[in-house]
Structures are given as structure tokens and as C-alpha cells.
Amino acid sequence: MPIPDFQALLLPLLQLASDDAEHTIAGSAEQLANDLHLTEQEREAVYTSGNGLIFRDRISWARSYLKMAGLLESTRRGYLRISDRGRTLLKENLNSLNLGVLKQKYPDFREKLEESSKTSSSAGSKLPSNTLAVVTSAASPRDTLNTAFQQWDNALKQDLLERMQQLPWQAFERLVVDLLVRMGYGGSFAEAGEAFQKGNDGGLDGVIKADRLGFDKLYVQAKRWQNGSTVGRPDVQAFAGALLDKQASKGAFITTAKFSAEALAYGSRQVNLVLIDGQELAQLMIDYNVGVNTESTILLKRLDNNYFDQEL
């Protein structure tokens, strides 16, 4: 099953706390994951940004909203249990629970949400345009930011691909050299660039150092093809043959196009060959800051429990 959104976790989390015992985020997440029959992959799934477990984060947001509504209460650091209001709500035997229901039942909760929205609006220019809608959405604030991040990232990758496809082939090869150097291959930019200029040998565009000392080599094929083009198995097989002739242990076929299913299947059987298509190439450029720059930085802060636990 897909990982439930944070609103779908409101009622299960409140029901979990109905035993009047203290509960932690970690313990609640483990028990709910078992109750929902989540797979290990779903439990360990992380956001695209790489920061935070998705399921654990959604449990945390569900807990925060239940606490804001007065249905859960803090007992000590990191621990919560059900409140009298929470027990009363569970007696209604609800089939589901969401923020809309909480806003209708509890005016104080609605006021807190409205106040939170006003506070966010004052800094809205620094946040994605859909962030303020989270209080009526099934997505948690973290999910909303992650979705906005993905949309921005996808648009940027498309822009990068379009610009790469417009480059002369010499400029595209320089881009590939720059990326490989940023990734730790090729020694210096000058050394890697010279290696490419000496390439075009037997189906290979270049050969560069695979480590800083040059004990191993990386053979590269770089193809700037237009949008909609597909690299087929014959091209990949020819490159693999060139690697075999050179007795090469490492090869990278890099293109702005896509690889056909047959090409991917063939490449997956070659232990010394990596296929990098346009989408992956664009992502690597973003990851290693090639052809991109940082427009703005958003700092997300959370409560520092250690500060409040120390003796002031």
C-alpha cells in the first residue's frame, strides 16, 4: 500500500494513544507501520531531498496537529499521551479524521491554524506558492515543500537538457569533462580536457583518469543528441566492443537522449559499463553544480529540546 498521508494517520495515531500510556514518535511509527502492514521499503523511504524518513515525518506532523487540537498532551520530553478531549472524541466512533473535522469541532484549533497561516504569509515570498494551502491539503508541510522541490528540480532538468542540446559538440564535450572533474575523475580540468582531445579513437571520445593518481582509467563516449532521440543497442554494443579492445575496466556512455529498452538490457549485463541518459546527466549537473547556481536557500528549523532541558 502507498504510505498514508499525515491526515490519514490522525485517527490511527489517536487510537494508538487510547491505552492512556506514554508514546514516542519512534514507538508510534513502529507500531503503526506494523498495523498498516507497511513494507520495509515503505518504512525506510526518504524524501527526494534525502533528508528525513517519509513515514516517520508524517507521523510527526499528525502528532503535532493532534497536539495543537488538544487531543494529545506532552508528558515529558519526546512523550505524548491522549488527553481528556481525545478520549471524548474517540467515543464518537469516527470512521475518519482530518483537519477539516478538527476545525469544525474545535474553534481554538481553527484559530491556531489561521494564526499559523497569517504568520506564514508574512514570509510567503520565501516559500513555494502552494505552501500556505497545506492546512486544507492531505499533504504535510514537509510533503508540500518536497513536492515543490521536485517540481522545481524537474523544470530545471528540462531547461538543462534543452540548453545542452543546443550546444556545439565541442562545448558539450567540455561540459562532460567539467562534470567528470567535479565528480572526482580526470585529475585537473586541463588534464581531462586534453584526454578528450586525444580521444575519438575506436569509438571512444575520451579516456581520463579514474583516480587522482591515474592507476585506473575511465573511457567515455559523449553523445549530444536532440530531444526525442533514442540510443539503441547497436551504439551501446559498439562502445562495449571498443572497451573490450582496450581491455578497459570502466566505461561511461553519456548522452542527452534516452536509451532504448534493448540498450538498457544489454548495458545492465556489462559489468564495466555505465549508461547515463539525459535525465540522469541533468541530475548529476544539479548535484555537482555544473551549469547551475543557487537562487535562494530556505532554512527549516525545529524545536531544540536540549535547550529547554538544560538548567537555565
UniProtKB/TrEMBL annotation:
Source taxon at top rank: Bacteria
A single BP term in Gene Ontology: DNA restriction-modification system
Molecular function terms from GO: DNA binding; restriction endodeoxyribonuclease activity
Ranges for domain Restriction endonuclease type IV Mrr: 165-285
InterPro entries to which the protein is assigned, alphabetical: Mrr-like_N_dom (IPR025745), Restrct_endonuc-II-like (IPR011335), Restrct_endonuc_IV_Mrr (IPR007560), tRNA_endonuc-like_dom_sf (IPR011856), Type_IV_Methyl-Rstrct_Enzyme (IPR052906)
Domain named Restriction system protein Mrr-like N-terminal: residues: 6-92
Record-linked PANTHER family: MRR RESTRICTION SYSTEM PROTEIN, TYPE IV METHYL-DIRECTED RESTRICTION ENZYME ECOKMRR
Name of the protein this chain belongs to: Restriction endonuclease
